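Notes to self after the call with IL:
- keep both proteins in one doc
- input above output, always
- annotate only the second one for now

Protein 1:
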Amino acid sequence: MTQWTFEPVMSWLAIVLVVGVLAGLLFIRPNYRTLSRFQLQTLSLLRLITIVILTVGLVRPGCVRMIERPQKVVLPILIDMTRSMELPLEGLGVTRWQKLTESLQASRPGLEKLAEQYDLQFFGFDSELVALSSSAGWPALPDGPVGAQSDYGFALGQVTERLRGERIAGCMILGDGVQNTDFPKVELPRAIREFSQLQAPLFAVPFGQAAEGDQVADIAVTNLPDQFAVFVKNEIEIQGVVEVRGFVNQEIPVQLVRVDRTGREELLQTKVIVARQGDERIPVDMTYTPSEAGDYRLILRAEPQSRELVVQNNELPAFLTVYEGGLRVLYLESELNYEQKYLRRSLAASQDLEVDFVWIDQRDRSRWPVDLVNQINDPQYDVFILGDIDSRALHEPGNFEQNLNALAKRVEQGKGLIMLGGEHSFGPGRYHSTPLSDLLPIQMQAYEAQDFNAPVNHSLHLERELTLRPAASHYLTRLAGEEESVWGKLPPLLGANRFTGVKPRTQILLETERGEPILVVGTVGGRVIAFAGDSTWRWFTLGDSQFHRRFWRQMVLWAAGLDGINRDDVVIELPQRRYAQGSPLRFTVAARQPGGQPFTNAEFTVDLLKPDGQQRSVIVSDQGDVREVSLPEGTLDQTGIYTIQVAATDGQKALGEARLEFVVFDSDSEKSQATASPESLRRMVLPTGDFGGKLVAPDGLAAHLEDLVSRPAQLSIEVPKKTMLGETFLDALVFLSIFVSVLGSEWYLRKKWGLV
């Protein structure tokens, strides 16, 4: 079909006027000489031809014709090149890769015929997509699959991107359907959606079976915390998960093994698990009480069974740090408020502090006083914290005085005591008539007593926002380099107890902006702290959690008499203790003064010791209290135990050393999962089912290719071809030549006949 078009160089009205004027000139002829009839007709014809040529040039005619052109049709074929294809094909005694190559070999005639109709393009993929060379429909396959992680979404998305603008007849995927990448570059649903928009079918050929009943046998330890910290002779709970497939009603021993620094293994406990279903996740709970301080490894190991295809996932390692002489704190409280919540959270951040919390519900006062004599007398406790708790919860004069008598004796023997503010603390809590009255560093009076059902005595409290300031330079007030400026920037307390007086030979460390005492300390054998506030939780929630943690850690350490001991002088913070081979490594190091405040000018020497004994020096950032260390991917190139060694100095003074171990294991996710996932491939092809997409069995691949050959794609397409006057240089030159020739001929004849 041909369609004529016009693209005039000016408006149609202007063209009509120009052509009309030129046509009118045809009737004008010279009057000084008589022309013969032949001469007049010849000149008029040449002028008419000139006007016609000029008119054609002004309207620029063209035409559009539909012509048939051959079309390139592409059929990409994607082949899974990851190491999971080396796993056995269940029940056949061959690997998935061997089955794939056999299926392709059996289908070679069909591929050769298909290559005559389609542009077959072969790609291998793992986490990347690589084009494979091919000849006559046969790809050049590698000797074996070596890819680390499969990413089906990225492979499909890359094919769509690379073949954009081409006509894609479909796409064929050969693999086990298991996507093992942790962070896919392209989400699989998105890649499938983009491909289905091309209205081309997806064909998937699965290799390997799904986990159904006893067809696949595998045991895997799939969950275990990577590190534990505990004090000597304290019990820890080890909770793991073992996933059992194909071993129904069979006893499977699970072992907890401890490994010391020499590599010697010690069996700690064995538990037998039994799966009642073909695929079951079984929690495994064990306990262990270490008797010696040190650093150890724990291994949760499921004993390998004879029918397992993969055994490297039968165990998981973890790290155990056992502390010698850690602090134990007994915290008594009757109010479940914000203060106790965030105070406990801050203390829990220190691995060498362990807090036992006892809640004495003030709503159940009929059972007061409660008997806590055994806990108070427990020698493992170093510091006692009394929150907003009325003395009557623990003490009844003349009837039950054992609790506070025991507590007073422990403090006199050297243990620490911290009392916090509240409506029923200090005087309002009637502590003036208890054995603690002589120990606390503040004065209390009988008239301060606060009854539970009576209105609050406001004269006993500072009921306004309180900005604190150090009254003296002390270990407890040094939260950073500039004491005064730090305290002035902390969120104010919402109120505090009003101390009616402080005792001699005590020390006020914190006060309000009006000079009212807030933190008072003294020594009566052990160290005693009276802190009037109960809203330091605002520091934690309003952006100053580091100062909140430091303040309460220093409170406990000072009360225990440990402010002069350099504990945890060099610290290595590692976010995890298990890494996959080839992963990047990031951690921080810091040098701390007693109580936790950092050395800001410390210099660090950091070395990474690999499992084979190689030692690598590591560059540390030179800014900040906490220094960052970042090592790129590929640093952890060996499997086994790595050690980070850190030494810190301040000028010529050595601040301390630290070392921390972590494990790098062969996390070959491609080989750690014994089962294939045909169902994943089926879900991939489902959105293209309307266009012919389907799942094809490996043994049916040859027949499927023959079916594609019998339904050849349309190899030609009609496309419009447009031509227009003056579109090319040659075209314009011919037109101009004709116009000049006609105009020149008319001029030549006029001159010859004496008209000019």
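Protein 2 (the one to annotate):
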Amino acid sequence: MVTYLVTGGTGFLGRHVLPLLLDRDATAEVHVLVRPASTARLQTLVDGMPGGERVHPLIGDLTEPGLGIMTAPAADHVLHLGAIYDLTAGDEQATTNVDGTRSVIALARQLDATLHHVSSIAVAGDHPGRFTERDFDLGQSLPTAYHRTKFEAEKLVREARDLRRRIYRPSMVVGSSVTGEMDKIDGPYYLFPAIAALAKLPEALPVAVPRIGSVNLVPVDYVAAAIVELMAAPGRDGQTFHLVNPRPQPVREIYAALAKAADAPHPAAGLPGGLVRSFLTPTPHPALETGRKLALRGLGIPPALVENMTLPTVFASDATRDALRDTGIEVPDFASYSDKLWTYWIEHLDPDRARRSHPDGPLMGRHVVITGASSGIGRSSAIATALEGATVILLARRTEELRSVVAEIREAGGEAFGYPCDITDDAAVERAVEAILTEHDHVDMLVNNAGRSIRRSLYRSTDRLHDFERTMAVNYFGAVRLVLAFLPQMRERRFGHIVNISSAGVQFATPRFSAYIASKSALDGFTDVAASETLSDGITFTTIHMPLVKTPMITPTSHYNDGPSMSPERAAAMVVRALIERPKRIDVPVGTLGEFGQLFTPATKDRLMHQVYRMFPDSQAARGEVTTDAAPGPPRTEDQDGESAEKHPDGQSVREHNDNKPSVLGRAARQIGRLVPGAHW
């Protein structure tokens, strides 16, 4: 029986090595050094692995003295895979790469085991020309902290004269040639988004690729298979193995293979490398260097990557190929598996993959949160959005009504989930958001529909500051609270869309709605600023300036309204359009008319609105009088999901209305409105 002790066993390369160790010897026992927090990860990894019961966690840490191990198990081989593989990391990686290697050497000596140290071709630094498996310190410069720490770690192993050891130097490792699997964006993967952008152009369009040199790429399955085979090869102690492609690959060749996989334009010509080399290499001019780095970071490419992507070194691998002769283990041609790398990246690693629409529809499979969803526009929007294939996640305070909407959507074959929540309550929102993200993983879109509207003149509000506080609590702070709660995961996924329901009244500054209009105006201002900050992260906003909407709870004051009203279903269609098309705003003509008036004739607009104020006095409810002629309807109590005589049930900023034939003034306003273009109406 052979026993192995492995560091870095849960890492990308380790996940490919472990099953090969188990498969090579049916009696082999493997102890994997893991931090306490990673034991569950290791267990998940080995559960689906043949022979996984022979893998045992060894609690410890590469960065701790003595690896943090209380008692080390006996082992014939110590395979040191654990390290930080990151060109962009700084000197902090020395704790893992150098100090960790020093501790592993001490452990191998203690166990009298053969140390198998996985180094990197980075030890060659900027050495020009041929670099053999016997070469090490040739006076080369080490351009990054990664190069330096890998060099220092290998030097420690080489200087341990009384230690049986073998050293493995992989070149740049990419995903599996079989499955395409890769664990992170690294190396050439930083260039994949640019290729994806080019793929939107006609495939027949020729492109020119600069002649900037060659790279050396190997798939992870080759590296894992070679290491396991070379560990068992007799008589190889003291040797170093280059796990590299024997033939360096020109950048144009790499691009051609990936372009074919991505259906992007093919390379038809080469450009002199000097045209772009100044962009790829550091410059001594501070201003130019700052600009170069900012431009690269704007493209999402670490400067250290482009500075070290192409190699001045040619790595000989004679000893490695000799040792692997007749094993069938060899580096496959990049073009033979580039399609697998591309497909895996598209499906799992593309940072913008969440932005892609489902082929069956733009809302198909999207997770859409809608507040104030128990009635009115919220209810109608939830039903309409579910019909588009979205999974609707509904928030409202009224539990029974919320359950009814969820049941109605499910009976129609849609996906719906309800979460009772008061959006003015920090703790309630925190609980709801945590539950939503736990149960649904992410949220793609948010519709801030819940709201409160109060129709009361300013003179009757002088002793009612709470009118202003409660409208702000729902309409502004409630909406912002949810935006802030979902924003981090939207940023992580690089996609999100937020629809804020505002009011055409904001554009007109409708009299007697000072509390309501102020709260919605605040939300409009927040939205404009937020949209400018989140754009590059794929997070966008739509503001809907909703017109008058027909809802049952506004009937008690219907005789004070004189405008045409929109049905909740038509309003819901505007919400669905905002989710699908994601425009900056959706207005109606009458709202645009008010905005033009404020911009070009503000004094005239004030006089007009003053006449409206005088023509339509406060309702009996706003005056605090008991009414006996109010139309029957739901109780006139305040709710985020529905409005009383002073509020609207959809939580929308619409003035109260009736279904009667509009007056001459109403008809005239409507005719003028038809002449005014709205934004996206």
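Annotation: DSSP finds 22 helices and 22 strands in the chain. The chain has a mean pLDDT of 87.
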